[in-house]
C-alpha cells in the first residue's frame, strides 16, 4: 500500500522512484501516532478545504525548491500545523494557551483537550437551549404560584425542651404563646362613656368573627368571663363587669366603673389611667374552612394582619375619631414583616438596574450583558419555581434567598464573560472562545458552587423551620446556577458572541501595562507581604476582642425586626407605658398529679417562686392561682389584709380557686405562673430563665415539677438558647466543609489556607461590626454568617486557580499575580463592588432586620473581595513555593 502511494505521488509530483513524500513520512511515523491519539477524523473534516481523515497536508503536494533543506520544509509544515491548531481548540498544542499575550506569560494549559461533558453540551447546543427554555417556562409558571407562607411552628425551635413542654400542654394553656392584644384608646376623656363602650363592643364582635381567632379564649370588658367580686355583709357578691342591665346611661356607667375597680383588671385589661382597654385575642394555627367544615385552613398571617387593619383599625378610627387603636402580637408582627419585605422586589429592581449599567461599562458589550442578566434571572426563576414544587413558600427570612442567587449568579457570569472576552482575541469564532472558556472555568466554578451549597446545608442543623427552609432554598438556588450560568451562558454566548469593541479592548488589555494592577501586585512582593500579614493579625485580634461584646437575641424593646419608629413598636411602647402587664409573658408550668394543683404544698411553692420572680430585675409582675386564692381568702375574712395569705385547710383552698378560670386545667394537674417582663431583651430573658431554673433545681419533686416555658418570652428564650448553641457549631462546620472542598480541589494545604484564612478574618470582623452596631445574633442574622462565607469563597477559588496556572508556567509569584489580576482579578473586583452597591440599598429598608442584613452582606461582600485581592497573595508569598511549581503540571483538579 505504501509503495502504491509513493508511485502515485511520484507521477503527480515528479518525485524520484523510491523516495518517500514528506507527508507520507509524517503520516507513517510519530506524527501519525500523535494524530491518532489526539485528533478526531470528524473534526479534521471540518477544517476548511479538507475532506480526508488524514492531516490536511497529507493529500496535497507542493514541490519545494531543490536547494531547500528538509529542516526548512519541516519548519514550514510546523508553522502551518501550528496555525491550524491555534484556530481549532480541539487540536492539542504545545502546552501554551493562546490569549493574545506574550507566550512567555501564558499559563500551561493542561486541560485543552475537549472533555466528554464539553462535547456533549456544545455538540448539542440547540437541544440544551430548548431544554432550558422548556424548563424555564414550566418553573416560571410554578414561581407565579409562590405565596407568603409562615406559621407559628416554623418560627420556633420545636425540639427544644421549653417548646416541647409548651406544645404538650398547649390545650391547657389556652394558646398563651400566640395571642394578639388590641388596645382601644379614648383620645379625649376616659373609657367610661357611652360612645367608647359601644365602639369597644363593636370591635369585640368584629374580632370575634375574624377567621383564626380562638373564640373561646377571647377576652375583653364585654366578655362574660370577665367578672368582679366583692365581700359584703352577706358574704361574697359578684357578677359580670358589664351586666346585662347595662344601657349606657350615667348610672350604668358609674356601676361599670365600680365593677372595673372591683374586678382586679386594672393594669391588665384596663389601663392604669383608665384611658384605654385591651381585647385579648388568642389565635389558632388552623381553623375550619367556612365553605367546608371538614377541612382545616392554616392561619395566613399576612391576611390576618390585613383584616386587623381594614376591619378594625381603619374602619373604627374613621367612624370614631375620638378613639385610637393599638395592635401588638406575634401574628401582627409577622404580617407587618411580610408587607414590608415586599420592598425586596423594589430593591431587587434597583440592584438589577445598577448591575445592568455597571456590566455594560465593564464588558463594553450589550449582548454579553443581556446574556449574563438573562441567565441569572432564569436561575432566580428556577429557584422560586422549585421552591413551590417541593412545597415551600416565601417567608420573611427566605425572601433573602432570590437576591443571594442573583448575586452568586452575577459573580459566576462575570467570570465567564471575562474569560470569553480574553479568549475571543485568539479564536476565530464565538464558539471556539466559548468552548475554551467553558473548559477553563467550568471546574473552578463548579467547585465554588459546591462550596456554597455545602455552607448553606450546614444551616440545617438549626432546629428552626424558617432557617431550614432558607438553607434548602439557597442550596437549590446554587444548584441551578450550575445549569444557567456555567452551562447555558457559554452556550448562549457561542451564538451571540462578543462585540468587536469588547474583543479589541480585551486584546489591548492583554498586552498593555496596567499601573493599577501592577500596584496591587505588590501585595505579593517580599516587602509588602509581611506588612499585610501583620495588619491581618492585628485586625483579627482586635475583631476577636471586640466581638466578645456580641449578644445573643434581641437588644431592643418591642420588635427589633422593625424600625423603632414603626407603628408596631409605637403601639408596643404605648401598652408597656400604660399597663402593668406587658406583651412579653414568660409562662412557668407547674405540673402535679390530677387534683394536685390546689394542694397547700404546691400553692406555697408557686407563691415562693412568684415572690422570687417579682424581685428579679426586669420583671413587672406575676399572676397565678395563688394571686386569686389570696384575694378570695382575704374577702372571706372581711377584707382584712392580715388574711391575705394561703390557708392550710384544703377545703378553703379548693373554694378559693373555684373561679380562677384559665389558671389551672380541667383536672387540676397543671397550673401556669404568668411572669410579665419589661421587655424580651436577651439579658432580661436570661435573668428570668435562670431564676426559674435555680428554683426548680431546689424544689422539684416527683409530684411537683416546674417546667419552662410558654408565652412569647419563653419561646424567645428557647430560640436564643438554640442560636447560642448553634452559632459556633455552624461557623466551624462551614469552614470545615469549605476547607475540605478546597483541599480536595487543590490537593494542597497551602492553597487551602490561602483561600480560607481571608474568609475567617471577614467572619471575625463581621461579628465585631455586629457588636459595634448593636445587632444581636438571632434568627434573622445567624444565616448571614454562612451565606457570607459561601459567597466569599468564590473569589478565592477563582483567583488561586488562575494564579496556580501562571506559577506552573514558570512566572515569579509577583508577576504571576499581576497576570492573575489582569485576567481574573478585575472580574473579582468588579463583582464585589457591583454586588455591594446593589445590596447596600437594603440599608434604607423600612424593615430593620432587612437593613441589618443588607449592612452585614455589604460588609462581607467587600471584605471577602478585598481579602481575596489583598491577603491571599500575601499568604501565598509565605506558603507557596513557585520554584517547585514551575514547569510542573500540578496535582490539583484544575490540572487534569
UniProtKB/TrEMBL annotation:
Residues 1-20, 55-106 are annotated as: Disordered. Residues 1-19, 74-83 have a biased composition (Basic residues). Gene3D superfamilies: Multidrug efflux transporter AcrB transmembrane domain (1.20.1640.10). Residues 370-495 form the SSD domain. Keywords: Cell membrane, Membrane, Transmembrane, Transmembrane helix. One of its GO terms (cellular component) is plasma membrane. It is a multi-pass membrane protein. It is found in: Cell membrane. The chain crosses the membrane at residues 127-144, 340-362, 369-390, 396-414, 441-462, 474-498, 519-546, 728-746, 753-775, 781-800, 827-847, 853-875. InterPro entries: MMPL_dom, Mycobact_MmpL, SSD. This is SSD domain-containing protein.
